[in-house]
Amino acid sequence: MTAPVFLVDSLAQARAGGTLTLDGPEGRHAVSVRRLRAGEEVVLTDGHGTGAYGTVASVEGKDTLVVAVAELRTDDPPDPVITVVQALPKGDRGELAVETMTETGVDAIVPWPAARCVTQWKGERAAKSLGKWRATAREAGKQSRRLTFPEVADPLTTKQVAALLADADFAAVLHEEGSTPLATAELPATGRIVLVVGPEGGVSPEELAVFAEAGAKPYRLGTTVLRTSTAGTAATALLLGRTGRWS
């Protein structure tokens, strides 16, 4: 198995041949849950593209590891960047969407309270739900051994999503009635790709019109209709393959 990944606040002081200390909740998980011991391989990352690869030098108490750093690695910036605007699903399907998109390799996720969303984030629920999405992305990033975790943005209104689409190098709305398959769309070799995933009730005609004015056309994934919690993952995988990022 590949070495487990743990998140640290910063790797600014990390260097090959030196040591780093992992403590707090991450250290407790490494020591008390994963039960890592001296000599085992481990990766510490800041979630922003840098990873310190090394071995456990010592274990202190129930929540502290000292890691001997063998080398530092840095991810190349993703290109093209893939952003998914995700309509708010019901229940815990939002976290499921974030988890699987993160594991697949999406670069950014934007929550969107579409007109036909049954779930709407308001007041304290908004902050709590957004926190769950961000925590899910963080944990899925570690689980999938990523050095660069996806950004989970603040929720955007339809008007704000339209502005995001207008600024993209390729913008698409996943829609079962789209005449063009996403698999055959002309994609940019570089830049920013933004996909909109609608709610279970679909993107409303008014929203489609706003997005079309911003330059986003409707595209379909295939002959089946996917749930909102899985469509973004399927589309991300398709684009990662087509753009060569999975080559």
UniProtKB/TrEMBL annotation:
<dbReference type="Pfam" id="PF04452">
    <property type="entry name" value="Methyltrans_RNA"/>
</dbReference>
<dbReference type="GO" id="GO:0008168">
    <property type="term" value="F:methyltransferase activity"/>
</dbReference>
<protein>
    <recommendedName>
        <fullName>Ribosomal RNA small subunit methyltransferase E</fullName>
        <ecNumber>2.1.1.193</ecNumber>
    </recommendedName>
</protein>
<keyword id="KW-0698">rRNA processing</keyword>
<dbReference type="GO" id="GO:0032259">
    <property type="term" value="P:methylation"/>
</dbReference>
<dbReference type="InterPro" id="IPR046887">
    <property type="entry name" value="RsmE_PUA-like"/>
</dbReference>
<feature type="domain" description="Ribosomal RNA small subunit methyltransferase E PUA-like">
    <location>
        <begin position="22"/>
        <end position="67"/>
    </location>
</feature>
<comment type="similarity">
    <text>Belongs to the RNA methyltransferase RsmE family.</text>
</comment>
<keyword id="KW-0808">Transferase</keyword>
<comment type="function">
    <text>Specifically methylates the N3 position of the uracil ring of uridine 1498 (m3U1498) in 16S rRNA. Acts on the fully assembled 30S ribosomal subunit.</text>
</comment>
<dbReference type="InterPro" id="IPR006700">
    <property type="entry name" value="RsmE"/>
</dbReference>
<keyword id="KW-0949">S-adenosyl-L-methionine</keyword>
<dbReference type="InterPro" id="IPR015947">
    <property type="entry name" value="PUA-like_sf"/>
</dbReference>
<keyword id="KW-0963">Cytoplasm</keyword>
<dbReference type="InterPro" id="IPR046886">
    <property type="entry name" value="RsmE_MTase_dom"/>
</dbReference>
<keyword id="KW-0489">Methyltransferase</keyword>
<feature type="domain" description="Ribosomal RNA small subunit methyltransferase E methyltransferase">
    <location>
        <begin position="80"/>
        <end position="239"/>
    </location>
</feature>
<dbReference type="Pfam" id="PF20260">
    <property type="entry name" value="PUA_4"/>
</dbReference>
<dbReference type="InterPro" id="IPR029028">
    <property type="entry name" value="Alpha/beta_knot_MTases"/>
</dbReference>
<dbReference type="InterPro" id="IPR029026">
    <property type="entry name" value="tRNA_m1G_MTases_N"/>
</dbReference>
